[in-house]
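Quick look at the format.
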Amino acid sequence: MGGFILIPVLIVGLLLLFASFFIVKQQTAAIIERFGKFKSIRNSGLQLKIPVIDKIAGRINLKIQQLDVIVETKTKDDVFVRLKISVQFQVLDQKVYDAFYKLENSHDQITSYVFDVVRAEVPKMKLDDVFERKDDVAIAVKAELNDAMSTYGYDIIKTLVTDIDPDIQVKAAMNRINASEREKVAAEFEAEAERIKIVAKARAEAESKRLQGQGIADQRREIARGLEESVEVLNNVGINSQEASALIVVTQHYDTLQSIGEETNTNLILMPNSPQAGSEMLNNMIASFVASNQIGEEMKKKNLENNITNKRKPKRDIQITPENNGENDKNQEENS
């Protein structure tokens, strides 16, 4: 009979022994109460408590936590905007008691302060300023939370404005404005590029014309020099300048006909183009040279006769008499 009583006692004793040990995870704090009153704070590791008398009232997470709060408010220019505020916070090791007993729900408390600060700061700014000065909003939220939550054992590590979401119509209008400005800038760049192309093309054409004119001038200069040398060679063999010039022109005529004949797709027609054209051209040129020489000789003769006639005319002497002298003085007085 005594053996039957001893077995349950051993079982209960083993259960109480196992119940006296508990484990606390890393970066976690356990709150121990004895008969409902705070007893101690146990950190990570294997811990011991008195069964039935002591109990674990709760556990506090000592890791850095993040709370995302979405706040909808109005800007100074009457645009409704939604802001996503990310608050990173942590329970201080030295204030675990305050974090557990003074604050029932830390998330609700932090959310309330975030709403209060954001709705006090954003209405002072225009929509563009909200985007540009979002760090100012984050700093204001962090300063307010640090002052309020430090009493409860919480440390605000960082506050971030992670998203700014205006109304859909406002975003569409902003996108249209941005697109218009970019199109304007693109048009200005395209116009500038087109102007540069036109200027460069004009400069290239001017340089081409200048070089082309210089080339033509050099070509004509060399042709004239060649003709001069050809005439000089022909004069040395007894051919006068008129005949030499005529011979050169006829030679160039046949060279032109030869170059035209070498082109297969030319539409050029040289008039006249008969077999007698060369001889007729030579005769016409010689006749022209002879006629021009005759006209030149006659003009020289006329000029020479006119000069001789002018030299033979007597000069009219003007005699000054007392009467004429008086009349001249009278005329001079009237003129003055």
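Next, a different chain entirely:
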Amino acid sequence: MLTGLIISTVSMAGIGFILSLILVIADKKLAVKEDPRVEEIEEILPGANCGACGYAGCAAYASAIVQSNAPVDLCKPGGNSVLEKISEIMGVESKGVEPKVARVFCSGGIKETVKDKVYNGVKTCAAADIAGGEKACMYSCLGYGDCVEACPFDAMYMNDNGLPVVILEKCTGCGECVRACPRGIMQLTAYDEVVHVFCSSKDKGPVTRKICTAGCIACKLCEKDDPTGAVKVIDNLARVDYSINKAPVDSIKRCPTKVIRIADPVPGYENLFEEMIEQNRKMVEKIKSSQPEKEGLKKADKKIEVKNKKDENI
């Protein structure tokens, strides 16, 4: 009996050894070697795993670049320095990434807005938005800081007035706060966009006046004061067309609620604001200098129109 037990044990051990050996050989023969560039790129990436690139994390993005030819310019937090290094590894040309920073497009905090409801649910913006929140303005910040929680770089905090604040020098423009805000008041903006409308309300002027002292009332004074035509009131909200002018500073002069104003520049990039403001000055000067000529052309056109009508009547 003992002999049989020993034989069985040795046999099982032998079979186990043979199978293990087969597995080791198979692992080596069938192993898929990972491209060393994946690890190189992963080391270059910031490691925040923010998902701004559209992939699950930095490792997934590095793998996608090498194995699936994913674009090399999707890492917003890494900026141009990371882009250049990845491009060098992959042997492709890089066109550069426009740096962006998040801004809060709502000025209606606790002090400025009217509360017409009481919310006792889960203290998150996502949950409060379903119930409508507490503020009368349906376009305003809900104030529970989902954007702050979503920021992987600790570049945001909630102030005493119940509004999020972006720490510009720490913001990488990853866009996580934008995705976290259920009301869309967080937006990414270019470093050289000087003038912004810090409101998202589409309510009519009289409605906004009653519920928020810091909202756009669609008075169109900004539109009238901007000679460049970059500022227009659309759907009861002033908007800036940055393809026309990035610094329409004349538009801020008479805003009754001070909602359209010059933003804080990203530290270290103040020169961009100065350049854009100078461009605006030159643009305005050119427009104003051509106005008398335009008025003369209008009068001449009217005379021709009157003469043509008279000729038709003869």
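The longest helix spans residues 270-313.

See the schema section for token definitions.
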